[in-house]
């Protein structure tokens, strides 16, 4: 009798259990095994499979929730591959007395301020310096100056006026040297906006001070390359001789004389809150040596696939605020600028703007109350996580959740050594010879070594690592591998299909044989070759199939069927049968 479909599939399952490469599965169906043995092996396989599922799930969860790790790739990253930092020289004195006196005389002359003398107006104009620190100290004088401006309809161009009142670069910088060569300071430095106001900047590669993208005549984005130092040591760095005109001090931000040095990334806006700005003081009559070191971080391709919340950083193409790169400092400054515009309706004269400067109102004397009220908030960045005990501070800080550090960046570190500036040493220095020690100061900033640090930001577990770990766990517990998958697909697709097709062909072959010899529902003779008695009485003898053919379980469809029904052929097997009209002796199968 033909096997049913269920029997065929059961036989394939049994064959798979006996022949699979998975460990121990043959003991579940191996003939002769006691039922207790089978139960024991079933429990073992259930525990092993549960262990695999638990371990794989744990590892996949770690893979999905992992954060980048930073490792040291090299401590011999050559200094020529590292951009030299941008350097801004800012005079501590923000307003020169001679310039304020000239401005007071001009306002009295042009606007007819008859109710105030030039000396009194000069004293009041000193409080324009409050636009730097937003302090309300001396508020009565600030209110008096505001009333004068309103009464006499005085309108100031605050950007231009504040730049004019400060020290100009050609007055502040006397001598400059870069990479061992003396150069005019005007070739190395330019006046740019910083958080300290207008300063003299070196190697600051941003085309403009605003958030606009600059294009050249061909429509390409303007992007300058930062200067690089080819070697270490003071001779291969930047050296500057500074003139601090102490006699002209009128509004110093600090109770000292000299200049403030800002060291920052050449692509970043010099902003203290971003954490990438280093501030150093160079006092008058001092010579200071600043030794640089750097740590450059580069991300790998695997970090790109992580969400920004998990990797905690942004790439250049994800949030572009300026030119063709992303800067954490730019993002924080943009967040602060939006808050200033929303809360006070204006921006300080030194802040970068979006669009045209003419379309943005500059904060005036009358806006100092609002600026003073929110200054502390703008200087405090709110953390992303709630911190216990700091609920009040959380509400009085700047929220910039869209800002993340850059994934690839260079961080600079500065070590300082200072000494008094002595005339005898200046006379023996090729760089300082010819200058007299008065209110001067000098500084040298340079890399202390040709070998810098290179860090690699990567993931602890990449996709190949996950695959390898999962394969190792499956191999240890159940002996599973990629070939096991192919083996499973082979048995339960191709083997099942072949077995079911053979069963169908056998059924069709038997039906065809029965119809061709004139019997309805005949049964082949037993494997011994003896025909049943009932079949002998009913009619002509039934054909005897070869044992070899019957044991194979396959009956082929006849390929030759003469009209007289005397000869049939199944491949290499054939036999003769006689019609019902006359009794003939059956001839056995003849082999060709």
Q: What characteristics describe this protein?
A:
592 residues, alpha+beta, eight-stranded mixed beta sheet, five-stranded antiparallel beta sheet, 36% helix, transmembrane, ion transport, transport, sodium
Question: What is the element layout, followed by pairings?
Answer:
Blueprint: H1 5-19, H2 35-65, E1 69-78, E2 86-91, H3 97-111, H4 118-125, H5 130-133, H6 139-151, H7 158-165, H8 169-172, E3 173-178, E4 181-183, H9 185-188, E5 189-194, E6 197-202, E7 238-243, E8 258-264, E9 278-283, E10 286-299, H10 301-304, H11 308-311, H12 328-344, H13 368-378, H14 391-395, E11 409-420, H15 423-427, E12 440-447, E13 451-458, H16 463-478, H17 482-516, H18 533-538, H19 547-552, E14 567-570, E15 573-576, E16 590-591
Parallel strand pairs: 10-12, 10-13
Antiparallel strand pairs: 1-13, 2-6, 2-8, 3-4, 3-7, 5-6, 7-12, 8-9, 10-11, 14-15, 15-16
Membrane topology: Multi-pass membrane protein
Subcellular location: Membrane
Keywords: Ion channel, Ion transport, Membrane, Sodium, Sodium channel, Sodium transport, Transmembrane, Transmembrane helix, Transport
